[in-house]
Backbone:
């Protein structure tokens, strides 16, 4: 499928052509579509910002524009749900996953693209297939395995950061490797061949030629690995304890307190959501040019 | 150099995958979990119980219809968005960035925001109330299924947009010129010239969107909380609750195996559609 390997230069709007010939929609329709979608997208986003500055009663009453402003939500939220520790845990775990995943996936991709071996296509197919295995299928056995490892080896696993790290790393690897495969495939072979003739080893070719040339791909791999962990609730909700909880799980405490019947802390809930969303949005905006190509390469969030 | 990732994937993906099948045929609960290797073998009994005594089939129906509905509803939206932003205009870069926002926001954030908007007498009740509609409860009862479809659609339409936009790059300028020379109206050109080019991208997006939605856990889990209302107890949530609230691990594993069955056909289509090897690659022996 050609769509998968194209990295369209105009996706980020660099090229400007004022061609009427290529116009696809009549102007009024085009304006309607864009305005309608902008409203639909920005409505909830704007509401999240406004509600994070509103009082809980105001949000409960369905106010859009706060009658009373409560910027203090952004102060209280840190003590209500241990958000600081959650963010720190998320950063440590996902940061480590991102770095290790990028390094492992670039070397794996190099081997998969440049060497012929039996089962190569099976591995490539597996990389894509593994992403679609439901997380709920893997959760229980991963949990059981870690628990057994802990009794067998006498080391703590469930509730530790490194167990979560290993889990995320493994689930991030197939997609990151696939992104790197599509990237390394596009690199010119001439440099490598020249280096080979000069007697460079595979390792040298990888570290001196492939890695420096594939920085954009490596960044995309790392970011996707990072986000996989950052966005996960399923595994973290079972495999962490209050000490090692990630931000995504820390946020779920708001849902739990809601069941006591008291008015939910809507304002702080929105503030916390916004705080968790900001790093993701910033990462995307900064690296958008590369990420869009990565997204279309495999199509997994 | 494949060894580290191969090793990891073997132990954290393939071994658990095999173990998932094994757990689904043993009687594993909170009493036997400590010595799970000695848990009694019960054959297909977990599957029989899941089908007869739990809401498994209901959950499967919900998951599949939700994923199909979302994939079909978001298709025209994503296509329209891609067509509208294909040609340059002032501010297009900003519009394109904004269009991606629902897709990039973490699912737990999207669900938290919509949950807040959907509480009784909340923002959505005011908004639809102002045009004289009373939806009733968004997060409970029969409407909740449509709330799930709505929120899932909101967060997943940009994926079509991305793939269609990439597909539009394959339409040559000559094609546009030819249809302009023929005096084709925009609709005719779209229907008979441009859309055929996009068929591959759209079908691929459809398959991936289904795969992505049918086993979505975080969004329904956070949007409705647990225990989920019966009308939105989709398969991943049911599986999770059976494991980590009822502690019926064997039963839950049987449900999880069913969820794998749901992705087999679309996954097969997906793997066939994707070109694994580019033609230019001359692989070294």
Residues:
């Amino acid at each position: 499928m050609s769509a998968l390997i194209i990295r369209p230069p105009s996706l980020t709007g660099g090229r400007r052509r004022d061609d009427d010939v290529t116009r696809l929609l009549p102007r009024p329709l085009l304006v309607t579509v864009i305005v309608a979608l902008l409203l639909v997208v920005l409505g909830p986003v704007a509401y999240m910002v406004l509600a994070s500055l509103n009082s809980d009663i105001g949000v409960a009453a369905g106010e859009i524009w706060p009658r009373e402003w409560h910027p203090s939500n952004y102060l209280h939220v840190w003590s209500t749900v241990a958000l600081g520790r959650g963010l720190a845990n998320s950063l440590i775990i996902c940061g480590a996953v991102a770095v290790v995943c990028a390094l492992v996936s670039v070397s794996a991709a190099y081997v998969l693209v440049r060497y012929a071996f039996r089962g190569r296509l099976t591995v490539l197919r597996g990389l894509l297939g593994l992403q679609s295995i439901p997380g709920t299928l893997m959760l229980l056995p991963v949990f059981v395995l870690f628990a057994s490892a802990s009794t067998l080896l006498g080391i703590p696993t469930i509730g530790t950061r490194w167990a979560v790290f290993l889990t995320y790393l493994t689930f991030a690897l197939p997609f990151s490797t696939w992104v790197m495969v599509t990237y390394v495939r596009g690199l010119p072979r001439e440099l490598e061949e020249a280096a080979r003739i000069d007697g460079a080893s595979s390792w040298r070719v990888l570290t001196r030629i492939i890695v420096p040339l594939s920085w954009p791909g490596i960044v995309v791999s790392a970011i996707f690995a990072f986000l996989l962990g950052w966005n996960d609730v399923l595994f973290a909700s079972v495999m962490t304890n209050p000490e090692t909880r990630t931000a995504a799980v820390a946020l779920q405490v708001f849902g739990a307190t809601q069941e006591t019947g008291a008015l939910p802390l809507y304002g702080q809930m929105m503030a916390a959501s916004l705080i968790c969303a900001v790093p993701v949005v910033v990462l995307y905006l900064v690296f958008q040019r590369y990420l869009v190509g990565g997204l279309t390469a495999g199509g997994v969030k | 150099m494949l060894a580290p990732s191969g090793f990891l994937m073997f132990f954290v993906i393939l071994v658990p995958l095999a173990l998932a099948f094994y757990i689904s045929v043993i009687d594993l609960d909170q009493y036997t979990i400590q010595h799970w290797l000695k848990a009694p073998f019960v054959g297909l009994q977990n599957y029989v119980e899941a089908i007869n005594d739990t809401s498994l089939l209901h959950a499967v129906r919900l998951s599949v219809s939700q994923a199909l509905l979302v994939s079909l509803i978001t298709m025209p939206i994503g296509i329209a968005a891609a067509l509208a932003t294909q040609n340059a205009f002032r501010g297009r870069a900003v519009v394109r960035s904004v269009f991606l926002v629902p897709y990039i926001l973490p699912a737990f954030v999207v669900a938290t925001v919509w949950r807040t908007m959907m509480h009784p007498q909340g923002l959505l009740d005011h908004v639809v109330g102002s045009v004289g509609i009373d939806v009733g409860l968004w997060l409970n009862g029969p409407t909740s299924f449509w709330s799930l479809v709505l929120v899932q659609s909101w967060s997943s339409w940009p994926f079509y947009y991305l793939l269609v936009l990439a597909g539009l790059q394959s339409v040559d300028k000559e094609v546009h010129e030819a249809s302009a020379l023929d005096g084709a109206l925009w609709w005719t050109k779209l229907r008979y010239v441009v859309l055929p080019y996009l068929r591959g991208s759209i079908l691929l997006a459809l398959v991936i969107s289904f795969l992505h939605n049918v086993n979505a856990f975080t969004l329904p889990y956070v949007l409705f909380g647990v225990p989920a209302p019966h009308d939105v107890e989709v398969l991943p949530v049911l599986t999770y609750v059976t494991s980590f609230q009822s502690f019926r691990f064997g039963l839950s594993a049987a449900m999880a195996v069913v969820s794998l069955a749901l992705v087999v056909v679309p996954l097969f289509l997906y793997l066939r559609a994707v070109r694994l090897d580019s033609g230019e690659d001359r692989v070294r022996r």
Notes: The longest helix of chain B spans residues 56-86. Chain B touches chain A through 115 residues (CB under 8 Å). The CA atoms of residues 177 and 183 of chain B lie 10 Å apart. Confidence is low (pLDDT under 50) at residues 278-285 of chain B.
